[in-house]
Every structure is written in C-alpha cells, then in structure tokens.
Amino acid sequence: MPDMLVRLYDLPDAAPYHARASAAGVRVRRLDAWDRTHLRRFVGERFSEEWAAEADFAFGGGHPIAGFVAVKDGEIVGFAVYESSRRGFFGPTGVREDLRGYGIGAVLLFRCLESMREMGYAYAIIGGVGPAAFYDKVCGARVIEGSERSVYGELYEEQRARRQQRA
Ligand SMILES: CC(C)(COP(=O)(O)OP(=O)(O)OC[C@H]1O[C@@H](n2cnc3c(N)ncnc32)[C@H](O)[C@@H]1OP(=O)(O)O)[C@@H](O)C(=O)NCCC(=O)NCCS
Fold this sequence. Notes:
Blueprint: E1 4-7, H1 15-23, E2 27-30, H2 36-46, H3 49-57, E3 67-72, E4 75-82, E5 89-95, H4 104-119, E6 123-126, H5 132-139, E7 142-143, H6 153-166
Parallel strand pairs: 5-6
Antiparallel strand pairs: 1-6, 1-7, 2-3, 3-4, 4-5
Helix pairs in contact: 2-3
Bound molecules: coenzyme A.
Coenzyme A binds at residues 17, 91-95, 100-106, 129-131, 133-134, 137-138.
C-alpha cells in the first residue's frame, strides 16, 4: 500500500463535485468539537478502530480542527482528516457505502487539500493508499516510488501477526 503525492498548487476545480454532493442532500463542513463522539463511533463501526483513533487525533491540535464531515439528514455519512497520521498527510477518509459515487469523497478530499494549501504546504501525501485510481482521477495524485511499505508498514505487520496468532 504505497503513499501518493498531490500537488496542492495545481488542484483542479472542485465545483462539479460540490454540485453533485449538494444535489444528493449532503453538506460537507469542518469538524466541530461536538462531532468527536459521533465521528469516533461512525469510523469505528464502518471502517476500523485504527482509523477511528486517527480521526480522533484530528481533534487534538486546537482550532481549526483538522478535518471535515459529510452530513445528511443530521447524520454523519462521510469524513476526512489531515495532519493526523503524520504531518503533511491526508487521511484517513471514508464515505458511507450507500452514498458512494455522489462526489462526497471528492468534496471531503478537496476541502482537506485546500486547508493544507492554506497552511503553506505545496504538496500533500496520501498515506498507504487504497483506491489509487480515485486519487489519481480526482486530484492528479501520483504514487511515490519506493513507498510501498508506507508509514503504516509496522501497523500492517503487527495486524498480520495478530491474525496469524488467532488462526
Ligand atoms: C474512496 C471513497 C472515499 C470515495 O468516495 P466517493 O464519495 O464514492 O467518491 P466520489 O463519488 O467523490 O468519486 C469521485 C470520482 O472518483 C471515482 N471513484 C470513486 N472511487 C473510486 C475508486 N475506488 N476507483 C476509481 N475511481 C473511483 C468516482 O467514480 C467519481 O468519478 P466521476 O467524477 O467520473 O463520477 C469511498 O469509496 C470509500 O469510502 N471507500 C472506502 C474507504 C477508503 O478506501 N478510503 C480511502 C483510504 S486511502
């Protein structure tokens, strides 16, 4: 699972994705402190405990909180955080399964990347990808040569060892 690099000074227009997400009745907004418990539950139940811990970490750095949520009918249906796994990193991110394909993942990604650009970064790293074709298509991300192990290498190895231990 390699890392990918995104040029923040050359981001494409996000407007079509905003329009699609909005037409699906979804609003993407920055995280607020009161989202913390709901977000941790959403990510833990639908993705993984490790991602839930990373999402939770986004709340630890003061304001602005380093992430966004997608909300539909008052419920969290997607999330994305940055500066969590490592400095300069985007992710993790995820959209509720029944709402994929409506541009929500792209809007979450753009909101985070634009925030990172505002922070002064010229590039962002997407760690341990994942759906490389999605990142390539939406923001022109490129796989970083030699990054196959990624910063999550140790985590994956330990998870594998635990699975083998249980089998
Ligand atoms: C990856 C993910 C966040 C994308 O969210 P989404 O809301 O479905 O994505 P969008 O609707 O914004 O997709 C934008 C474009 O990318 C394309 N796309 C989405 N997922 C893709 C994938 N896995 N591979 C290739 N293209 C993809 C869409 O078809 C769309 O293209 P279009 O503009 O031509 O219609 C979502 O599939 C998800 O939650 N996956 C599971 C968690 C995960 O893998 N997270 C990433 C960890 S690195």
